[in-house]
Design goal:
Helix 3 packs parallel to helix 12. By secondary structure, the chain is α/β, with parallel strands linked by helices. Strands 3, 4, 7, 8, 9, 11, 13 and 14 form an eight-stranded parallel sheet that branches.
Length: about 350
């Protein structure tokens, strides 16, 4: 058992020493893990011992490591985010952002896409408002994921306003303030009507996916992050001079979805158990790649210019793409032991003159 575990760790470490081709959205970025500031710590699901301990790092390594940040977010408002995820977050002292659907918390379910059309999901396994407020009282962000999680692209102007403004009013009725609106189903960020409606009620929004968020939305032009989501942008202004929506901006911040990655890995490995040790190791390796990839850009810039936003839904084994409790703890331990600044969205400020984000 000891020999096999050491051998597995050796193979994993070798993967990071080779040149790795990563698909960052629509195009590929080639990087060498030797460029990163430190070697990663890997944990077996069956042990709490680090393969590479923090005590073995040099002072320079630790200093560089402290310059890394990550934003953690949760969608929808599942009760197990409170009962299962929160105790793990508490263990490491992390405060994160929860995007809740008002109708889900109220117990009347929410809308979801099913084969391209909307279907009503029953209101089971949702947090109560008391649990949501406790999260707020303990220092977490509570933000909006819509009133009923409707597809914004198909709504009339009255329905659109009800979905967006109604979610803010619902939170305010429960003494909760929200500045961020997460687009239901991550759809509608390229629609100027939707963007303008969101901007009337919220300061910021999230729509779409990317492995890194660039604080100036200039990943393509100034940092060589060659993906369509940042193509030709210099700032985070939502609109071009002629009024067209920009690709990624303060209203369409992009997250990395843990669920989507898990689903992709499952599809590529149909003979493996979705929550078995092999799949969990693959997910953990990809998690480390994502949170460490910022080093390529931050180290060259001499400051934090890019951070990953890691999005979770359900912590458990309810579906094949959920994040197991063991894996979530393993990932949070990695962030803790490697000195990451774990942020919530309210830790971000915004410069309205230069149209860019900054870490407060």
């Amino acid at each position: 058992m000891v020999i096999s575990r050491v051998f597995v760790v050796f193979l994993i470490s070798m993967l990071f020493m080779w040149i790795i081709s990563e698909n960052y959205g629509e195009s590929k970025v080639i990087y060498n893990y030797d460029e990163f500031t430190i070697s990663p710590n890997f944990y077996s699901l069956s042990t709490s011992s680090a393969i590479i301990s923090k005590q073995n790092m040099s002072t320079a390594d630790v200093q560089n490591d402290l310059e890394k940040a990550v934003i953690i977010m949760f969608d929808r408002g599942y009760e197990n985010q409170f009962t299962t995820a929160k105790p793990i977050l508490d263990k490491y002292g992390f405060k994160v952002s929860f995007f809740v659907i008002c109708s889900f918390v109220e117990g009347s379910g929410y809308h979801k896409l099913d084969n391209g059309s909307e279907a009503k999901h029953e209101g089971d396994n949702a947090m109560s408002w008391d649990q949501v407020k406790q999260l707020r009282d303990e220092g977490h962000d509570i933000e909006s994921h819509g009133k009923e999680h409707r597809d914004l692209r198909i709504l009339s102007s009255e329905e659109l306003e009800d979905e967006i403004a109604g979610s803010k009013e619902c939170l305010e009725d429960n003494d909760l303030k929200s500045s961020f609106f997460q687009f239901p189903n991550n759809r509608g960020g390229d629609n100027s009507t939707v963007l303008k409606m969101v901007s009337e009620y919220f300061d910021f929004g999230l729509a779409g996916h990317s492995k890194l968020m660039f604080l100036n939305c200039d990943g393509w032009v100034n940092h060589g992050f060659k993906t369509q989501s940042y193509k030709y942008q210099y700032d985070c202004n939502p609109f071009t001079a002629d009024g067209a929506p920009t690709r990624t901006n303060k209203l369409t911040i992009r997250e990395w979805s843990h669920d989507r990655e898990h689903s992709s890995i499952n599809n590529k490995n149909p003979t493996l158990a979705p929550h078995g040790p092999e799949i969990s190791d693959m997910m953990f390796i990809e998690f480390v790649r994502v949170v460490e990839a910022q080093n390529l850009y931050n180290s060259k810039a001499g400051k934090i210019v890019a951070v990953p936003i890691i999005g979770y839904h359900f912590i458990g084994n309810s579906t094949s793409y959920d994040t197991s409790e063991e894996l979530f703890d393993r990932e949070m331990k990695y962030l803790y032991d490697n000195g990451f600044k774990v942020l919530k969205f309210s830790d971000l400020g915004y410069n309205n003159t230069g149209h860019h984000f900054y870490i407060k």
